[in-house]
Structure formats: structure tokens, C-alpha cells
Amino acid sequence: MAAAVSTLSFILLVMLPGDLALKVAMARYGEDLADEQAAAYVRREEGLDRPLWFRYGVWIKDTVTFNLGRSLVTGNSVADDIRFHFGMTTRLAVCSMILSLFLAAPWGIFAGLRPGSYTDLASVIVSGCLVSIPSFVLGAVLIILFAVKLRWVPAAGFMQASNLILPSMTLALGLAAVSSRVIRTATVEVKGSFFITFARLKGLSAYRVFYAHGVRNAAIPVVTFLGLQLAHLLDGIVVLENLFDWPGIGNLLIQAIVARDLPIIQGTTLVIGLMYVTVNAVTDMICLWLDPRQGTGK
Question: For residue 56, what are the contacts with CB-CB under 8 A and spacing of at least 6?
């Protein structure tokens, strides 16, 4: 998989217009000092004048051996840069997921226990409105309201813990709008299951039956969906990272693509690919723990 992701990245980079060495020189020395001489120096120093097949072989070898190397622009260790930026994206993603669960879980369960009611209808309307609003628009509205007008929190940055509030809230509202509908659907399905009806016929209260037996079964599709959401978040919320000046992995990848910083691009795509595999594997294990019957094929 790593080789496939790396190959696709290499092909896309080769297809990008412009002189690769000149782009790197502009990012390294600045546009005023980036002339043909600087581009020629970068081309020789970084081996960009070698045949395409040779560069591809080196690219694949470095990918397979996890040799991330150093940035063509800054000279910093790619592993160190990715560790910092991926850590910042992880911090933002985890905070957003936790906040979204606090919002979506009671929201979805309450609507699912009363399908067709005014509460359910209001939930559909609110979630539909939140989903239809682009994340950057919602983020801009929150910045104007809480940072500019009320001045409760900073508008952007990453040096303080309070810098997490607005981007996390922006992501959490969008995630909760979708997650609440998944939770609501799972709640309705579990509520109508035979084992719930059987437990109620035994005289158990609706509250005890649902929270003792229904929650675990309803959690399976929710966990699967949340795993996909987490993978998407860790992939890098590029627009929001730029809006809130948050130095995440998506922000790093965009800067590397603009500068044609090949080692950074190689490292980030490799980490993102491995991240998807890891999140999916963990999600499958959690679902298997919630419902061991999945492992027997029954």
C-alpha cells in the first residue's frame, strides 16, 4: 500500500506544471533571489537532473525503508516536521471528536427514542442546517461572534490552549450534525429489535432495557461511522487549518506541494496512508469487541 500511495504521489508531482528546481529555489531563497543559477544549484544538489526512472527508484526505496530524509526547502528532518504537524492535527481532531460526541450522543438518542415527534423533526432541521453550511463559513461566523465581537477567545494561532476552542467547535458542530442522525437511526433500529421487545415483556423498564442492552448494539454502526470521521479529520482539515492558522498535517502538505518539497510530500502521504489503515483496523477491533458474533460470521 505504501508503495502504491508513493507511486501515485510521484506521478502527480511529475505532472505538475513548472520547473521543479525553480519552485524549490523560490521557496528556499525567496522569489527575488530565485534565478536560473539558484535553480541549477538546487537541481544539481538534490539530484533533480537525474533521469526520471532513477528518481522514481530512489523515491520507492526511501518509501519502503521509511527513509524520510530532509526537507528540500528548510533542511529540517522530515520526521521531526511530520511529528510536530501530525501531533497538532491529532490534537485538534481528538478534541473535535470528543466535543461532537458530547453533543451528538444525547441529541441522537433523545430523537431516536421519540421517532416522528416534534423533537425528532427539530433535530432533522437543525442537523440539516448545520450540514449544509460549509465549514469555513461556520468558522468565520464563530470568529466574528466569539473572537471579534465578544472577544472571549483568540481568533487564530496555536500557542495557547484557548486557540483550540474555535476550530474544535467549528468541526464538532459539523460532525455532531451528521453523527446525531447516525445515532438516531441506530437507536430506532435497536429499539424495535426483538430482544428489546422480549425484555420489555419480562417486565423490565424501557430505560433499563435500552441502557443495559440497547446501547452496546446501537454503538456498532456509530463506532464504524466515527472511525471514518476520525480518519478524515486526521487526514488534515486543510481549509480550517488555514482559516485558524493551525499548523496541522494538511497545512504542511499544501505548503510542500506549492514548494515542490518532495521529501515532505513523500512523508506526509505515507503517514496519511498508514493512518487510514490503523484507524480502520482499530475500528474493526472495537466493533468485534462490541459484537463478538462478527468474528464467527453469524
Answer: 7, 10
Cβ burial, residue 109 (10 Å; 0-12/13-18/19+): buried
Q: What are phi and psi of 16, to 5 degrees?
A: -65, 140
Q: Angle at which helices 215-234 and 78-112 pack, to 10 degrees?
A: 150
Residue range 86-259, CATH number: 1.10.3720.10
If you ran DSSP here, which 8-state letter would residue 77 be given? Answer: B
Are 244 and 166 within 8 A, CB to CB?
yes
For the ranges 67-81, 180-194, 202-216, which has the lowest average pLDDT? 202-216
Task: Indicate whether 144 pLDDT > 90.
Answer: yes
Residue 77: what are its φ and ψ, rounded to 5°?
-65, 130
Residue intervals in the chain for CATH 1.10.3720.10: 86-259
Spatial separation of the C-alpha atoms in residues 244 and 147, rounded to whole Å: 11
Output the DSSP codes for 244-296: TT---HHHHHHHHHHHT-HHHHHHHHHHHHHHHHHHHHHHHHHHHHH-GGGGT
pTM: 0.74
What does the pLDDT look like over 22-45, one tens digit per residue? 878 887 777 777 777 877 887 787
Sign of CA dihedral 198, 203, 205, 208: negative
